[in-house]
Amino acid sequence: MKILGVSGTITGSKTKIVVERALDYVKKIDQNIEVELLDLKTYNLQFCDGRDPKSYTGDTKKVIDMVAGADFYIIGTPVFHGTMPGTLKNLFDLIPVETLKDKVIGFIAVGGNLKHYLMIENQLKPIAGYLRAFVAPNYVFVHNDDFRNSKIINEDILTQIFNLSKEVIMLQKGIKTNFVKENIY
């Protein structure tokens, strides 16, 4: 099994720090899981323009293939003006709809307003639902004050990140072993 952690921004460092921490926990929980980080800051993605995703080249093709090659995900995003950055929305637009079908996603958001946690409920979960992904019931919202010197200092947040990591593993393993796709047509 392979998990892809996505740092869904091209600015700042906090989102990547949180996603890396979640991936570190995944490694500690189950060493058999292959772990990969997709830091959108390190790729030059083209804007989605409606064409067949297979026709993209370069970094855009690499990123689409990375997402398609994973079995489950932890997706992190900053919250800007109450919403996700365009870079993450562009990633969702670039990937074929079937890419996330029947795969588990755990969400983490970072923001400066405590009410921004609602963005996960009101924006990310509906997108994941449209893409037919299974969403971990719990998620993590990390406030900017939970960081000091590029480290997460809030022990409660670290516990939440650990629990989210456990949850996505448990859900993905359960789906992989118990979910039977039936053709009803």
Automatic annotation (TrEMBL):
Gene Ontology terms for molecular function: oxidoreductase activity
Protein name as it appears in the record: NADH-dependent FMN reductase
Keyword hit for Signal: no
Keywords of this entry: Flavoprotein, FMN, Oxidoreductase
InterPro entries the UniProt entry points to: Flavoprotein-like_sf, FMN_Rdtase-like_dom, NAD(P)H-dep_FMN_reductase
Lineage, opening ranks: Bacteria, Bacillati, Bacillota, Bacilli, Bacillales
This protein's record includes keyword Oxidoreductase: yes
Organism per entry: Pueribacillus theae
Domain NADPH-dependent FMN reductase-like: 1-144
Pfam families referenced in this protein's UniProt entry, alphabetically: FMN_red
